[in-house]
Structure formats: C-alpha cells, structure tokens
Design brief:
The chain is α/β, with parallel strands linked by helices and 364 residues long. The protein is built from 19 helices and 8 strands. The termini are far apart. Bound molecules: adenosine-5'-triphosphate and magnesium ion. The site of adenosine-5'-triphosphate has 20 residues, from helix 2 and helix 10.
C-alpha cells in the first residue's frame, strides 16, 4: 500500500543516513501515537536504503519486558562477538561496548532499529543513553520508535530523553495522523463518507485502513468495533484460537500454538484469511498491536485463567526458558507454586542486568 504524507519524514531520515554513512552517526527518535505509521515508515525506509546493513530489535508489550530484549534481537542478526557474549551471559557494560564497536567499524552503514521503546526495560533505556552519547563518530544510525502519548513526566524513557535532548547527534522525527484530504484519498474507492471516516479515526492510519479493509459500508460508531467485527465472523473454534493467540503475544509462534492446540493449523489459515493476522517473514503476526489488544480485552474474565494455564503448560512442554514469560502466564493462571518458581528467577535475571529497579529491589 502507498504511504501517504510521509515524504518529509523519509527525507529527514535519508539525510541522517547519508551523514551516518560519512561517519557522523546519530540516534533518531521516531515518535507518534499508536497506529500512526511508525513501523510502516521504517519498512519503507529500509526498502529505500537496501545498501545498508539493517538489524531490527523490539520491546514487548505483553509481559514483563525481557531484560535487554532488543539488544539480544540485534545480536542475533549482527552475529560475531556480540552474539557470543549474549549466549555466554556477558555483563551489560561489555555488551554495550561490543555492540558499539561492532557497528562502528567496517565500511558498511549499519542501521539499527529499536521498536516500541515506550515498553523498554530500564537496561534498554540505559543502552539508548549510552549510544546517544557515543554515536557521533560511528558509521551507524540507530532509530528508536515510541508512542509519545501517555508518557508521564517521571517515566524512565521521558527522563532519559530529557538527558539526551541537547546532544547534536540526537534527532527527532514526529509523525502526525493523516490530514482530511489524506483520509479522503485512502477512502476514495470505498464509497464511505470521508468526513465521517476522518471524524471516527482522527486520521489514524491504522483505524482508517482497518475500516477500509473490513469492507464496511458504513462508518462504525467506535473504532474498536471494527476489529471485533472481523473476529465475530470467524468459526467458533477459530474464534477460540484467536483468543489464545492474543494472550501469547503479537507474533504467532507456530510450535507454541501447535502445543497449546494440536492440529490447529487450518484454523490459523482461517484467521489469516480474515485479515486479522498478516504474514511477517515466514511467520504470522497480528496486523497490529491495537487489534491484539482489542481481542485480548474482549476475552471474558472466567476464560482467561484456563487459557493462561494451557499456554503455561505448552511453554513448559516446549522447554522454553523465558522466566519472565512463564511467570506472566503462571500469574494469569492463578498457579501460585509456578509463580514462586519463575518470578524470582525472572527477577534475578532483571537484577543482574539492571533491567528493572523495582524487580532488583524486590529480589534482594
Ligand atoms: N502514511 C500512511 N499511509 C497509508 N497507510 C498507512 C500509513 N501509515 C500507516 N499506514 C497503515 O496503518 C497501519 C498501522 O501502521 P503502523 O503499524 O506502522 O503503526 P505504528 O505507528 O507502528 O503503531 P504502533 O505504535 O502500535 O507500533 C499499517 O498497517 C498501514 O497499513
Ligand atoms: Mg509499530
């Protein structure tokens, strides 16, 4: 789909990438409300800049953040010494320094994307602080995306951004919702009233495209209804599986889904056909986190516990060693002994990497 009204943001980032390629690296803070198109503009930028070496990391919304999760994502793609350190439990100063060294040398421009830092753990925020101060002489551009709505003044991210504000190597790119003519262009072929669509969506591209893709003849009363209307058309077993996927996270892990609900691949195909899930490389994910959240919030309270219990059992059966995630589902399942097993282990890990001050204090 064509991206509307993003030429200026792309031109700014192209200029910064050129400077970074000349050895004047920087940190770009890409902000805007949920669904405004941060990920979409980054994907477009990657298509525009194929010569650079791109690595992507992301913070998670669903459970207690993995300590330094995005750094581990990046290490998996960058390989080398950083990847080795991640596997052998290197300390954070060593990890930060190695990442910087690995993207600073070499003739290729490195672009590192860290998505959704409004969910970052404290160690990841410290990583941004570290990079923000040291990228000036590196052949690397780091782009961190975040939602700027609802960040309280004492939020650790806001505090860190304040500390970095004056530095020359820090740049801000802000994405605004689409204008009424932009919404009109997207709605042109649909027969929907563009003014009415703009009023409902406030120009938010996620909600605009959701209404259009759902093939609605009338603009619905509430944007959330659009997402739920799609799920209401699924067969009952697919509907049930959708609830499970909404509680496992934005990305769909086929082996996990198979372990929770054996033989459910055909149902996943049905959900994919509904447009609620889209392809993401070789996998599927929710078309948008807003959609996952709408589905999650619509799950009746008495059904949540049993779903968490099934996910917990599946994670255990697969031997997944992600303590924070296991603790999250153990709590959702109301399984006290499992919480007591996984939560302290998760806190120990968070404390070791200074990922979460409160967890560290509780752990002590
Ligand atoms: N400029 C645009 N023109 C047309 N459609 C767009 C534009 N930007 C985004 N979209 C559509 O809106 C949807 C939501 O965009 P995207 O996922 O990039 O938002 P986001 O800002 O990354 O949200 P989040 O904060 O939840 O990560 C995309 O799937 C895309 O279809
Ligand atoms: Mg996004």
């Amino acid at each position: 789909m064509e991206l509307l009204e993003r030429q200026e943001a792309l031109a700014d980032m192209t200029r910064l990438a050129r400077e970074a390629g000349d050895g004047h690296g920087g940190l770009v803070l890409l902000c805007g409300e949920a669904g405004v198109g941060k990920t979409a503009v980054l994907e477009q930028f990657q298509r525009d800049l194929p010569a650079a070496r791109w690595s992507w990391g992301a913070c998670d919304s669903l459970f207690t953040p993995r300590p330094l999760g995005p750094l581990f994502d990046l290490a998996g793609q960058l390989g080398g010494e950083l990847d080795r350190l991640c596997r052998t439990g290197g300390g954070r100063e060593e990890l930060f320094g190695t990442l910087l060294r690995q993207v600073s040398d070499g003739a290729t421009l490195d672009v590192l994307v860290i998505e959704d830092i409004h969910w970052a753990d404290e160690a990841t925020i410290d990583l941004l602080r570290f990079l923000g101060r040291r990228l000036k002489g590196a052949r690397a551009l780091v782009i961190a995306s975040y939602r700027d709505e609802g960040l309280t003044t004492d939020h650790p991210l806001r505090v860190a951004l304040g500390d970095l504000a004056g530095l020359r190597s820090i740049h801000r790119v802000t994405l605004a919702p689409l204008s009424p003519p932009g919404v009109g262009r997207l709605a042109a072929a649909s027969g929907l009233d563009p003014a009415e669509l703009y009023r409902l969506t406030g120009g938010n591209p996620f909600f605009v495209t959701e209404v259009l893709q759902a093939g609605m003849r009338e603009v619905p009363a509430a944007a959330r209804d659009v997402v739920l209307a799609r799920s209401a058309r699924l067969s009952p077993p697919a509907r049930e599986l959708l609830d499970i996927t909404a509680l496992t996270g934005t990305r769909i892990e086929p082996d996990l889904i198979e372990a929770v609900d054996p033989g459910s691949a055909a149902l996943i195909d049905e959900i994919h056909a509904s447009g609620l899930l889209v392809e993401d490389g070789t996998r599927l994910r929710f078309r948008h986190e807003i959609a996952r959240l709408a589905v999650e919030q619509a799950i009746l309270a008495h059904r949540r516990g049993p779903i968490h219990r099934r996910i917990l059992a599946a994670l255990q059966a697969l031997g997944r060693a992600d303590d924070a995630r296991l603790a999250f589902h153990a709590e959702g399942a109301g399984d006290g002994p499992a919480v007591l097993k996984y939560a302290p282990a998760a806190a120990r890990q968070a404390a070791a990497l200074a990922s979460h001050q409160e967890a560290a204090a509780q752990y002590r």
